[in-house]
C-alpha cells in the first residue's frame, strides 16, 4: 500500500511539473524591450478572488522596469472605488529568460510567471501559475501599449486562456475607466 501511495504522489507531482513546463515562453526573450507602460486589456483566472471581484474590475496601468540585479519591478495602478490604488511587485528572474517567480508578502502565494508571447511594441501575453496552501490557480493577462487592441489579439488571448483550461466565464476583456486617466496615470 505505501508503495502505491508513493507512486500516486509521484505521478501527481510529475503532472504538476509538466503543467508548468507546458506553458510556453517567448523565444529569444528580450527583457529590456518589455519595460515601460502597459495597459491591462484582458484578465482570465479560475481563482476565487477573480470570481468574487470580476464585476468590479477595470483596466489598469502597469509600469515594468528592470532592477539593478536584473529582476522586474512591476507597478500596477488600478481604480478601486473612487480612488486609484498602486501595487508593487518584484518578479525575480529564473534560469529561463522570460520566466519569473514572485511570492506575495500579503497572501504567501507563490507565482510562476511566463511571458508567453510579445512583440514588445503592441502586446504581451503573460500566464501565471499560482500556488498557495488552499490550492492552485491559473491567471492569464493581456497587456497592450495602448488602451485598445485588435480583435485578432483579443481572440488570441481568449483562445490561449481556454487552452489553459479556463472557461468563458473566467475570461474578461477589461472595461476602460476614466478614473486613472484623470489621475494622470
Automatic annotation (TrEMBL):
It catalyses: prostaglandin H2 = prostaglandin D2. GO terms for cellular component: extracellular space; Golgi apparatus; nuclear membrane; perinuclear region of cytoplasm; rough endoplasmic reticulum. The keyword Disulfide bond applies. Residues 35-177 form the Lipocalin/cytosolic fatty-acid binding domain. GO terms for molecular function: prostaglandin-D synthase activity; small molecule binding. Monomer. This is Prostaglandin-H2 D-isomerase. It comes from Prunella himalayana.
Amino acid at each position: 500500500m505505501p508503495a502505491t501511495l508513493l507512486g500516486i504522489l509521484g505521478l501527481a507531482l510529475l503532472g504538476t511539473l509538466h503543467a508548468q513546463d507546458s506553458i510556453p515562453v517567448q523565444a529569444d526573450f528580450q527583457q529590456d524591450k518589455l519595460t515601460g507602460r502597459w495597459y491591462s486589456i484582458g484578465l482570465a483566472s479560475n481563482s476565487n478572488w477573480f470570481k468574487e471581484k470580476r464585476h468590479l474590475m477595470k483596466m489598469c496601468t502597469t509600469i515594468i522596469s528592470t532592477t539593478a540585479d536584473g529582476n522586474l519591478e512591476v507597478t500596477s495602478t488600478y481604480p478601486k472605488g473612487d480612488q486609484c490604488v498602486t501595487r508593487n511587485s518584484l518578479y525575480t528572474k529564473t534560469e529561463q529568460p522570460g520566466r519569473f517567480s514572485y511570492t506575495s508578502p500579503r497572501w504567501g502565494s507563490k507565482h510562476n510567471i511566463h511571458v508567453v508571447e510579445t512583440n514588445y511594441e503592441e502586446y504581451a501575453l503573460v500566464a501565471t501559475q499560482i500556488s498557495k496552501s488552499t490550492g492552485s490557480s491559473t491567471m492569464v493577462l493581456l497587456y497592450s501599449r495602448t488602451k485598445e487592441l485588435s480583435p485578432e489579439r483579443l481572440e488570441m488571448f481568449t483562445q490561449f486562456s481556454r487552452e489553459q483550461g479556463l472557461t468563458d466565464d473566467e475570461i474578461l476583456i477589461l472595461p476602460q475607466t476614466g478614473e486613472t486617466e484623470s489621475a494622470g496615470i
